[in-house]
Design brief:
Mean pLDDT: 86
Low-confidence stretches: none
Structural class: mainly alpha
Order of helices and strands: EEHHHH
Helix content: over 70%
Strand order of the largest sheet: 1-2
Radius of gyration: 19 Å
């Protein structure tokens, strides 16, 4: 689907939807995924007296792949959702990630759920505000 844009000089030209995609749509989910994966592997490593094992890195890699794919999909296809649902989806993704990290660090299930819920609510409020201001 092509859209028509007007430049500051008054000239009009058509752009396809493919041209509107920014490289940040790939970079931000990848950066989030790598950060979370390394964090998860580091948390597990410090719990095992600093000895790195393949299992710790496997957990980090799996977390990075899953979180990166979900963040990419939500960033790419989330625009079809209303801003409230999109903010709730980002909040759920952020809360689940933080809750999982808390459980990896040795927190109880109740503590991980409470911290994940609090962080998810914060992410949902912040993203709703950002979507509300931009749209």
């Amino acid at each position: 689907m092509a859209t028509q844009t007007v430049t500051p000089g008054g000239r009009q030209h058509r752009r396809s939807d493919r041209e509107h995609r920014s490289p940040m749509g790939f970079v931000l989910p990848a950066l989030l995924a790598v950060t979370a994966g390394v964090w998860a592997a580091s948390v597990l490593r410090f719990q095992d007296d600093g000895i790195a094992t393949g299992g710790q890195w496997l957990v980090g890699i799996i977390l990075a792949i899953v979180l990166g794919a979900l963040a990419f999909a939500l960033g790419r296809y989330g625009k079809a959702l209303p801003r409230e649902a999109r903010a709730a989806a980002w909040g759920a993704l952020g809360g689940a990630a933080i809750g999982f990290m808390t459980s990896l660090a040795g927190g109880s299930v109740l503590r991980a759920a409470a911290i994940g819920l609090a962080c998810g609510a914060g992410v949902a409020v912040a993203t709703f505000y950002a979507f509300y201001v931009r749209e």
